[in-house]
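hey can u check if this looks right to u? its 363 residues, i copy pasted from the old doc so theres a chance i mangled smth
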Amino acid sequence: MTSARRLAVSGVFLGLAGSAALLLGEGCTGMFAGCEEKKGEAPPPVAEKISAPSAPVEPLPTPQVDMRKVLLGRALFHDKRLSGDGTISCASCHSLDTGGAEHRKTSIGIQGQVGPINAPTVLNSGLNFKQFWDGRADSLEEQALGPVANPIEMGASWDKVVETIRGIENYRKQFEAIYPDGVTQANIVNAIAEYERSLVTPSRFDEYLSGNQHALSEEEQKGWEIFQKVGCISCHRGPNIGGGMFQKMGLVRNYFEMRGTPLTEADNGRYNVTKNENDRHFFKVPSLRNVELTAPYFHDGSQEKLEDAVRIMGLVQLGKELKEEEIKAIVAFLKSLTGKLPPHARLPEGGENDPSQTVGGTS
């Protein structure tokens, strides 16, 4: 077994140890969203908090997608005609230039309306067990359905969107070639979701896990070891290095008190979906892939620097002040998770002005 694999496997045991500590009421550790500790209360059902048994950190899988749908979805993802006034596309808040997210605390929607929460990355999102910070969508299709009709996001009517897309000849022909029932709301969101599923971004870390000992620098390897040793791996596990469970924001110290600003409805997290008090301040643990590119950090977009995000998580989730050299090494490791977009991810040059003209590829 290579040392890279030994490290990956050791991460599994650290993750299992963290989970066991949680169930025993002794706390556990996490990175960008922490593990819960509710003394005197029974732990929430495991099925709600974790989608699958603990898995090792492993290389990204190759997505199995229909490239006809992917290319159609790519055009729709970049098409502002899906918004109520033709000014906003999915790519407006999930730019490929900024890690599939955007460099704003919260998104700006139709007519300049300011959204309540930081936009999560769309890259590798097909590997998440649920979508959105509060997990209100079970699939990428369900996720793609919401923003179009949300009055403060894209502010459109789905009936109008379907009518518009059906009225564009290139779109209509492409839909009819792929879907027996042509242009429908369900088929539009399916195409967008298929495009999003294809946005898998392997990095140097994947090469390292596959046995290339030279893929990471000495500092990055040190950061990976610390990442496991201090317990980040207990929540950020699996091929997406996160995205597989809900955890509480602020396990050891109250994050929101430390933040020092009034609570918002978005701060309630999973509670907004379940109305279960045990879910207040719980969020989907985010993937750390491409985290170097997705500032500002946390659901509230409160931190601009990755170093500060790591430092704060050490305090509120681990209950310790990480040393500067530990933070530096962890950040070096996290930067090794910056991956490469697949060749088909971007529109062909010039396609941004009229996405319907880019539709038509079949490979």
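The two ends are 38 Å apart (CA to CA).
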